[in-house]
From TrEMBL:
InterPro entries, per database record: NAD(P)-bd_dom_sf, RCK_C, RCK_C_sf, RCK_N, Trk_Ktr_HKT_K-transport
Regions that span the bilayer: none
Matching Pfam families: TrkA_C (PF02080), TrkA_N (PF02254)
Protein's recorded name: TrkA family potassium uptake protein
Domain RCK C-terminal: 157-223
Source organism per UniProt: Ornithinimicrobium faecis
The RCK N-terminal domain, residue ranges: 14-129
UniProt superkingdom: Bacteria
Length: 225
C-alpha cells in the first residue's frame, strides 16, 4: 500500500469520507503527516483517482450502513466526513459513524442548520470549510493541537497541549528550542491569564502552550507522546 514504508509522525489509521476539495485536502495532508488514510468515495472515478495516493479507497456509499460496514468503521478512532453536495448523505453518513461508536467524528457543514443537525446527532466537531480548510483540520484531529496557523513560508504558530516529556520541567531544563527547533511563546492554565514564556517557566499537565517555528518541526513535537 502507498506510503507504508515512510516515517510516520502519527502512526494511526483514520477514515475520510468524501474526496471532494475539502475531504481530499484533509486526506492528503493527513497522509503527509503519516496517518494511514482509509477513504470512502461514492464516485467511482474520483475514488480511482485517489487509490494510489492513500492507504485504501473504497467506492461505496457511506450513507448506506451495509456499504459503510465494508470499511469497518468501528476499527477507527477518528473519522472526517467531507460530504457537502448532499446534506441528507452527510447526515446519514455521520449518523452511521455515531452508531458505530467512533470517539472523534469531524464533519463538514454547509449551513448553520446543517451544523445544528450534525451536532444533534452526535458529531463531535463541526467544520465550516469557509473558515477551516481541509489541510488545517488534518493538523487538529490528533487532539494535541488545538489551533494551527501556517504561513506561506512553512512557518507555523500553534496552540497545543504539552508532550509528557516536558511536564514538570522548566523550559530551560527541557532545552526545547535546541532539541526541537521551536520556540514556546507562552503558556496558559485554565482560569489564569496568558503568560509569556521565560526560561524558568515550568510546564504543567494543565497548561496550553503557544509554540512557533517551522511547521515540520512543530509536527514532530506534536507527535511526541
Amino acid at each position: 500500500m502507498v506510503g507504508l514504508g515512510k516515517h510516520r509522525l502519527f502512526d494511526e489509521d483514520v477514515l475520510v469520507i468524501g474526496l471532494g476539495r475539502f475531504g481530499a485536502a484533509a486526506a492528503l495532508e493527513m497522509d503527509r503527516l503519516g496517518y494511514r488514510v482509509h477513504a470512502i468515495e461514492s464516485d467511482g472515478l474520483l475514488a480511482e483517482r485517489f487509490s494510489r495516493k492513500l492507504t485504501r479507497v473504497l467506492a461505496v456509499d457511506a450513507a448506506d450502513p451495509a456499504q459503510l460496514a465494508e470499511a469497518k468503521p468501528g476499527d477507527f478512532r477518528i473519522a472526517v466526513v467531507g460530504i457537502g453536495s448532499s446534506i441528507e448523505a452527510s447526515l446519514l453518513t455521520a449518523g452511521n459513524l455515531v452508531d458505530a461508536g467512533l470517539p472523534s467524528i469531524w464533519a463538514k457543514a454547509v449551513s448553520a442548520e446543517h451544523a445544528r443537525l450534525l451536532e444533534r446527532i452526535g458529531v463531535h466537531h463541526v467544520i465550516f470549510p469557509e473558515a477551516e480548510s481541509g489541510s488545517r483540520v488534518a493538523h487538529l484531529v490528533n487532539d494535541r493541537m488545538q489551533g494551527y496557523i501556517e504561513f506561506e513560508d512553512g512557518y507555523a504558530i500553534v496552540k497545543m497541549t504539552p508532550p509528557q516529556e516536558l511536564i514538570g520541567f522548566t523550559l530551560a531544563e527541557t532545552d526545547i528550542r535546541k532539541r526541537y527547533g521551536v520556540t514556546v511563546v507562552g503558556v496558559k492554565a485554565p482560569g489564569e491569564d496568558f503568560t509569556h514564556a521565560l526560561p524558568e517557566t515550568k510546564v504543567g499537565r494543565h497548561h496550553i502552550m503557544i509554540v512557533s517555528g517551522p511547521s515540520k518541526l512543530i509536527e514532530q513535537l506534536a507527535a511526541r507522546p
